[in-house]
Write a structure and sequence with these properties.
Order of helices and strands: H
Number of strands: 0
Radius of gyration: 46 Å
Number of helices: 1
Strand content: under 5%
C-alpha cells in the first residue's frame, strides 16, 4: 500500500476533488459523445433522403425528357406526312386533268 505524506483530511479532500473532477469530465465527455452521435445520425438520415430525392428527380427528368423526345418525333412525322401530301397534290395539279377513256363498248 502506498504511503502518503499528507494528513488524512488533506488526502481525503484532494481525492474528493479528483473524484469530482473525473466525474464531471466523464459526464461532459459522455454528453459530447451523445451530441456528436446524434448529429452523425441526423446527417446520415439527411444524406439518405437527399440520395432518394436525387433518384426521384432523375427518374422524373428522364421520363419528361423521353416524353419531349417522343413529342418531337411525332411532330416531325406529322410534318413529313403533310409535306408528302402537299407534294402529291402539287404533282397531280401540275399533270393537269387526266383524260379518261370510257370503259364501255363503242358502237
Amino acid at each position: 500500500m502506498p504511503t502518503y505524506s499528507m494528513e488524512a483530511t488533506e488526502l481525503v479532500s484532494a481525492l474528493t476533488k479528483e473524484l469530482m473532477f473525473v466525474s464531471i469530465y466523464k459526464a461532459l465527455a459522455s454528453s459530447l459523445s451523445a451530441e456528436n452521435n446524434s448529429r452523425l445520425t441526423a446527417m446520415q438520415l439527411a444524406e439518405k433522403k437527399i440520395t432518394e430525392m436525387i433518384e426521384d428527380l432523375t427518374k422524373t427528368y428522364r421520363s419528361q425528357r423521353q416524353n419531349n423526345i417522343t413529342e418531337e418525333i411525332l411532330d416531325i412525322m406529322a410534318s413529313f406526312e403533310v409535306l408528302q401530301t402537299q407534294e402529291k397534290q402539287q404533282v397531280q395539279s401540275a399533270a393537269g386533268p387526266r383524260l379518261h377513256k370510257p370503259t364501255g363498248s363503242s358502237v
